[in-house]
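Q: Hi! First time doing this. I have a protein sequence and I read that you can turn it into a structure. Is that right? Here it is:
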Amino acid sequence: MNGRKMPPTERLMDNKGLKQKIAFEVERTSAYCDNSPAKKKAHGCKTSASKASDLFEAALAGAHREVNMLFSKYSEVLSERAAMDASQVRELDNLLMEARNLESNLKEKKDHLRRTLAIISDKLQG
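A: Yes, that's right. Below is the predicted 3D structure, encoded as structure tokens:
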């Protein structure tokens, strides 16, 4: 590779390619073992199975790290989003409280103005 990180889809395709390579190696090795003498067959098949097992374990460990990394990033994103949502909810609550206070203040001023106009009207009629 050239030092850049592959997107998850390319990494998954790499894992699939690795699995196919492992399967090919197992088939090739088992075919070779079947054509070899019995003494070599027992030793060669164990070695090839061990190599295939090691390759599979390495691929599995890589996939496990990849999944853990993706889950970690996903949980970070969810955590950040939850914090942002909580902040927005607090901001909306503050705006709502301010709007209610303004509404109450305007109602008081309206009532005061109505009373003042009533007093002025009574004086003009009287």
